[in-house]
Fold this protein.
Amino acid sequence: MKEAEELIEKAVLAVQEGRISVEELLQGALDARGGYAQRLGAELDRVARREPRAQHLRRRTRLGPKTYTKLLKHARATFGEWPGVVHVSWGRKYTGGRPVEGPALVVRVKEKREVAEEHRFPAVFRVGKRGRAIPIDVQQVPNARRHAGSQIFPGRGVVIQVGPLQGTLGGALQPGTKGIATLLVSGHVGRPLGAKAIALIDSRNVRVGTVQKSVVTDTMDGALIGGEAMMDLGALVDKPAREIRALRDEDGHPSITIQLLKRTVHTTVDSCDAPATFDDGQTMKGIIQLSTRATNPGDSGAPALDYLGRIVGFVVGASPSNTFLVSAKEVVDALK
């Protein structure tokens, strides 16, 4: 049994590092063992209804929450003080520009070339001689742009405008008395306090209130707009109300749907604890990095949902390769 577990770990690591493909590994097993194809088919049929990526990843790697926390703590203690290192977190390893299945410890640096000249990072990280080997990937902190646009896009959905900036409506809190609802928008769009906000609904500019609260920090970006009676809240948001979910490292790389203006996009999570430096000079940490750039200027504030329709984050901006979200739970908690 022990030999089998060691063989599985060796095979998984070889796939993660890109030295062998899943197809090659399976073909070798099929060629070597009679009857294996039938057992493999039965196993695939059994897991077919599981959530893609997250649950499968958790089962295969067998890393529990305590193991994630322990490994990350040791990795940060090992690499966190190295010159040029900005952040260490769980994420996704890339080989030849393609994502590798399985969790990886991602060391993010200011300038990858400068750090490479001073340090040679190991290919894997393990705690103790017999600890599990986890792939390491060194990535440069991306330069990203805030996704506050300066134009209105008719017909794409609900655009929120505060002064000269536009963003996308993130959602609305439950209506209070006299039909007055509180709307959630991006913090770098929803400011200054007291500024009037309008929404584009069916080619009409509709007043939706004023900026009641706005918080923009190195981990948070959100604002509340309210004070205006909503005649038809259904024109602004979907119903019923959705649950808010906080992503965790052990969730792996779950599928995400972003509700953008006039369209929805589907992507996956690279890391739920990533940094990014934006075009206004601010570096944010602890934000959610997606595996693709799925958004454009004007999409700031758009809600991102998991496979069960739970809200996990709001768009804050993007680099040339990745879109970034702020945690929905942190935004709502900070603005209550």
In short: Helices lie at 2-16, 22-32, 36-47, 54-61, 65-79, 112-118, 328-335. The chain has four domains: 2-50, 65-143, 146-235, 242-335. Confidence is low (pLDDT under 50) at residues 53-61, 149-157.
